[in-house]
Amino acid sequence: MALNLKVPKILSIISSVLLLLGLLLGLVVFSQADSPEVKDLISEFYSTDPTIQANLEAEDLTFEEFQTGFISTMKGFISISLIATGIALLLNVIGVFIMKKAPRAAAVMFIIIGVLSILTVVIPALLITAGIMIFVKRSKHLNNENTIQA
Fold it and tell me: CA–CA separation, 13 vs 130, rounded Å?
């Protein structure tokens, strides 16, 4: 009797698609971070803020230097997020492919990816559920095999 892993596989594939969409969206945002529209948006938000103006005067910075620093910081955060999402996507796809041969390893990978991506809410719910389902189904499968052999 084979181990039925259809539902965990579907959950992990859905999370892979969501991770891929997040990765593509992050790439679009990263590529547009230096655009004039983003600079105009930053100017609109921060040019009239008295706190920002006071900090710029205290640190002897121009608003253009502030914009450049803001954009480079934003791109740094986005690049870290892109790397983490790419690694999670790669591990998730590997987990989908090794699920039949090594269900315990796939379950551990899904749970670890879910815990590490806890801020995204939906992806951890899918992956942690898939990992727990694999563990539960595997233990029931092993119990059934042991009772059949006895």
Answer: 10
Q: How far apart are CA 87 and CA 134, in angstroms?
A: 22
Please report where in the chains the tokens 């945002």 appear, as a residue. 29
Task: Cite the DSSP H helix spans in 32-121.
Answer: 36-46, 50-59, 63-98, 103-116
Q: Tell me the two tokens of residue 147.
A: 């009772």
Q: 7: how many CB neighbours lie within 10 A of its CB? A: 13
What are the two backbone dihedrals, phi and then psi, of residue 32, each rounded to the nearest 5 degrees? -95, 5
Question: Using one digit for the tens of pLDDT, what is the confidence trace for 51-67?
Answer: 888 888 888 888 888 88
**Side chain identity at residue 60, one-letter code:** D
Is pTM beyond 0.70 here?
Answer: yes
- Under a CB-based contact definition with an 8 Å cutoff, are residues 107 and 134 in contact? yes
**Helices vs strands, H then E, count in the chain:** 6, 0
Residue 63 in domain: yes
Cα–Cα dist 132/26, whole Å = 29
Q: How many separate domains does the chain show?
A: 1
Structural domain harbouring 24:
6-149
